[in-house]
Amino acid sequence: MATKATEPTKSAVTRNIPLPIYLDYQATTPTDPRVFGAMLPYFTTKFGNPHSRSHSFGWESEEAVETARGQVAALIGASDKEIIFTSGATESNNLAIKGVGRFYKDRRNEIVTVVTEHKCVLDACRHLEQEEGFKVTYLAVQKNGLIDLNHLREAVTDKTALVSVMAVNNEIGVIQPLKEIAAIAHEKGAFFHTDAAQAAGKIPLDVEAMGIDLMSISGHKIYGPKGIGALYVRRKPRVRLHALIHGGGQERGMRSGTVPTPLVVGLGKACEIAKNEMGTDNERIRALSDRLYNGITKQLKDIVLNGDRDHRFPGNLNLSFSYVEGESLMMGIRDIAVSSGSACTSASLEPSYVLRALGVEEEMAHTSIRFGIGRMTTEAEIDYAIETVVKHVKKLREMSPLWEMVQEGIDLKSIQWSEH
Amino acid sequence: MDSRWTYLDYNATAPVRPEVVARVAEAMTIGGNPSSVHRFGRLACAFVDRARDAVGGLVGAEAEQVLFTSGATEANTLGLRSLARHAAPGGRACAASRILISAIEHDSVLGAAHTLDLPVETVPVTAGGVLDLGALDKMLGAGGTPVVALMLANNETGVLQPVAEVATRVHAVGGTLHCDAVQAAGRVPLDLDALGADTLVVSSHKLGGPMGAGALIVRNLTLVSPMLVGGGQERGLRAGTENVAGLAGFGLAAELALSDVANSNKIKALRDDLENRLHVIAPAAQVFGADAERIPNTTCLALAGLDNETQVIALDLAGVAVSAGAACSSGKVAAPRVLRAMGAPEALAKAAIRVSLGWASTAADIDRFCAAWSEFVARHAARAVAPNPYSRAAGAQ
Amino acid sequence: MAYGEKLIDHYENPRNIGSLDKNATDVGTGLVGAPACGDVMKLQIKVNAAGVIEDAKFKTFGCGSAIASSSLVTEWVKGKTVDEAETIKNTQIAQHLALPPVKIHCSVLAEDAIKAAIADYRRKTGKAAPAAAAASEPAKVAAE
Fold it and tell me: How many Å lie between the alpha carbon of C19 and the closest alpha carbon of chain A?
């Protein structure tokens, strides 16, 4: 593959790769055509409100909703009645954290989470902390992005209502030890919630085997539609929560509002496909991920992989290109859609809080790019990405005063920078 | 739509318009997260921006005043709780002291009102289904800073409510007004300023857009107290990746519904024809709220002695879909709260069915409904033509 | 975000990349910014006996706007006297490249870089700055 990487950029045209190339699968995934195919009839002929009790349109929709519920449950080893449909993982996370927190507040008013969680988990916790008198512990992570279980054990107390730790990190792809975390939470009688937006359908998850009490799932991260998600809520032992959205009493009172049939059908189908194809998908994704990593590191030195090398979902490759600023690299490789942080924060100029939490120096955090590989990624796209990235990193390093100094043997730390 | 069926339950949900399906498909194909800075993200963002303009246009608001949500239920919850926390118009942080909701509000407004840790009082409606302004004045006079919830058109009867008058009165005592305009949007002209409400709610799937999208239109954004946090979408007031395809469809449905408003005479003619014919079929049939101003698509009718569940099942077997009450809570058809609030006796309320028309309705649908209903009435003639002891209470004639 | 044409041109075809001999007395070097902030600019000027900037070179670690801003100033200062070059304002740079508001700091940095290079040149040659410009630590002047 090294030979291909020396070909000029024009080769994308001769190889007939449609540009731009999408390598941002953590921000959102393309909808699988099979998913949209399954949804379509529920827009056109089977458009009933699933809560309509008085005619076939309603019954038909209701049946479709229940089938989808079963498909979601099957993906994570849950039973149908434990699946609540929501508008997405953000709502699921807010509902799990605020809902459980508020319900058990009288006896347990502590929550334990991790500094590298998704913003919506952190913000929900912060809300409970600042507005509603909860005590929240934000666990630090180790250099590899994983939590230290001993620290967790110290943080969980008899007053802890909920431990919330994400399954797969959105920025660096590391997989936390869910089963062990659950055991520690349960020792003290706390529930364990995991934000599995990036994990469901990507890594094997079994709520029973892993002891997960609540799990957030997103439709659009698993080739399903946006605007739909699910929250798994354990029934035995029963986890109770206060609803955020009240009214019609849908979703067993935990989430009111018309259940959007086409979206739910899409989520169900996406889960079914993910369950059936996870093995083959992951084999391909791993191979493509290795190809990308090897292709780049063979031609460029001083590349750092952020996050644990082994405990990770291979579809997430977060690399620091030392001495090359990430945004300028993104501009150079703008035929390739990647992210320099999570989609939510990448419009800001702050370096990623997740990378900072790993102890990555700020200057290195500024040089990182997240490559997201998924079901639709092809080998040709990866090869194009390799050659484009290598070319631009070389060019930008030639342009970089830091690279020049390091080549001259100057220690960058010895320089007094004019901070601003 | 399947031509073997006559669908007359638009107030529960409308079939998605074909143009909307195409737009949804287009947005789904493009993909992208609107928060991403690359091209896919910018394309997704453009869909959302366009939808925001269209939804603003439907209700005479600025695009900046539109906050997208997962649907009307979420928007009602978000709107009411925001006003409860910052009741004073103009954004002065001043919590409300009481909540007044009309007796005919949707379950989502009712549900939200009861979770805000404030006393909730119910404002009665007249036998005609219109908010009792005299009663409201008395209640407002009792003092305190109220948040008032009044829907623009009722989902069961279609009766339009005096929102603008109420807004003036509520603001005069320093309160705020939340207005659920789900059933009115796309059926009558709407203008946020003319209505005077502080928050307004619109739903996509009642307009012929996809389910899973709605909007809270807010006069003053500083009033909003976010419910879903973390991610910064919707200017930090409603987090969560935007339902891009759903919103794209919502936007187009809003554009199409806006042009339908101009042609609402067509729907009204169908509905008036329906009501004339059912009085011929069964002269004792009552139409709730018939004397009030209504949205042009809704008929809520009852014939004493006919059970509504039996009616809808018979109609369904005849290929006609109508409703026997709001399509919400699971399973049980609750005693129709709205009709009871209008003073209808339980027996008559339980006889009521709702026929609601929409963008794809035709004269053939009316024919088919009338034929099926007429047959049903004939079969139950003995009871149906019996003198109706409740005619006064129904308030229709 | 969408970038302007001039900005993209300077980013893709940066002018005057490279280095001059930083030890030469007729070369002034400015190094501003910090890696932790995501921007470092090195800008060098070579000044002839008449006080005219004959050559200018830069290297920049930073976003596309930072690269374009430094590329643009090297073009602008060439052929100008040192005193003239010193009057270049960040607003001119920002306007020329149509920088979005979040990128204005890149033009500030470029202005700082040229001032720092001039200060270095003056320090080496012992030529005093004209009256008002007490620009010994220009980076701090612009620091917020």
Answer: 9
